[in-house]
Amino acid sequence: MVKVRSAKRKLYDLQELAHYGLFPLRYRLELLHPEARMYRSEWQLEIYAQGVWINHIYGLLSESDEITSKKDSSTFYSQLLRFLESSRVTMRNIVPAFSPVTWHAIEIQVKSKLKNFSDERYRYFLKIVQGNKESFRVMVDGSFEEQTIKINIDVPYMAKTTGFDAAILSDIQTVEWLLPGESENKKNGREAIEQEIEMDGVRLFPTQYQAVTWWRNTINAYFVVEKKQKVTDNPYTRMLEEHYIRMPDKIAHWVQSIEQNKFPKHAGEHCTSCPVRLECLGIAGEEGEVTA
Ligand code: SF4
């Protein structure tokens, strides 16, 4: 039997709140019907498989001392590619139904994520280690008293560098369907990311890009502020510190809105990659089959 969690909760995962801040109805549908999180179509499984593969590669890296040279990003990238190659057969056996063409497309995406990782991290990289379950607390005004809500951040892997430990988020993005989205105005400053629209009294992100950037910034700000990992004072770390100061107000507002049963249907560009769109349109049957 499926257990439905109470609307009043003392614990949330950060990614659930990021889902709520963009797609409140998705949050509601996934809560009531966990099967809505079952990715069924080929395009969904393709994206999901990218996350599983990249996560598998980080797991192999965390157990290996093979990465020796980080003198330039292309040497680092070719070392990372060896882990992709050694895991190719395992991955194909996990999802044997994909065609060779689909596997090729998945591999291109995984390579691109490894390339981004090597470009960003090669200079100060030491190793990859398992992450921890982290959490912070936010005070929320309830009907009768203030309550403390615990927010979980579950980061599977961290990149240890000579200066600080960086959370690796790309695999959670695909598994949690927090795909980066496109910046509309090419600005990624604080003002662009913090823009809001209001629906049914709920303050929401206008776009997927803003929601996902807020989610990433919250995790990075947690490590900079709570875990005291700030090694330099620069515009980015100052932006994260400001983000961390403002973030509890937004979370408290969403928790109150959830408790007040507010789940507006926020349609937009993001509907095209929303995992529950069949349920949202009312065309998924009990077994998750399309019935009309
Ligand atoms: S399909 Fe669109 S409107 Fe429906 S839950 Fe997803 S994002 Fe919201």
Explain how this protein is built:
The protein is of the alpha+beta class and 292 residues long. It has one domain. It has ten helices and eight strands. It has a three-stranded mixed sheet with strand order 1-4-3. Helix 4 (73-94) runs antiparallel to helix 5 and helix 8 packs across helix 9 (235-259). The longest helix is centred in the C-terminal third of the chain and has 25 residues, at 235-259. It is globular and about 55 Å long. Iron/sulfur cluster binds next to helix 2 and helix 10. Residues 23, 25-26, 265-267, 270-271, 274, 276-277, 280 line the site of iron/sulfur cluster.
Q: Work out the helicity level.
A: 40-55%
Please state the CA-atom Rg, rounded to the nearest Å.
Answer: 20 Å
Report the sheet with the most strands, covering strand number, pairing sense and barrel closure.
3 strands, mixed
Q: What is the percentage of strand-forming residues?
A: 5-15%
Q: Which residues form runs of ≥5 with pLDDT under 50?
A: 286-292
SSE order, one letter for each helix or strand: EHHHHHEEEEEHHEEHHH
User: Order of strands in the sheet with the most strands?
Assistant: 1-4-3
Distance between the termini: 27 Å
- Mean of pLDDT: 83
Write the layout of secondary structure elements.
Blueprint: E1 11-13, H1 14-22, H2 24-32, H3 42-62, H4 73-94, H5 100-121, E2 125-130, E3 133-141, E4 146-154, E5 157-161, E6 165-168, H6 170-175, H7 190-194, E7 197-199, E8 202-204, H8 208-226, H9 235-259, H10 277-281
Parallel strand pairs: 1-4
Antiparallel strand pairs: 2-5, 3-4, 5-6, 7-8
The protein binds iron/sulfur cluster (SF4).
Iron/sulfur cluster is lined by residues 23, 25-26, 265-267, 270-271, 274, 276-277, 280.
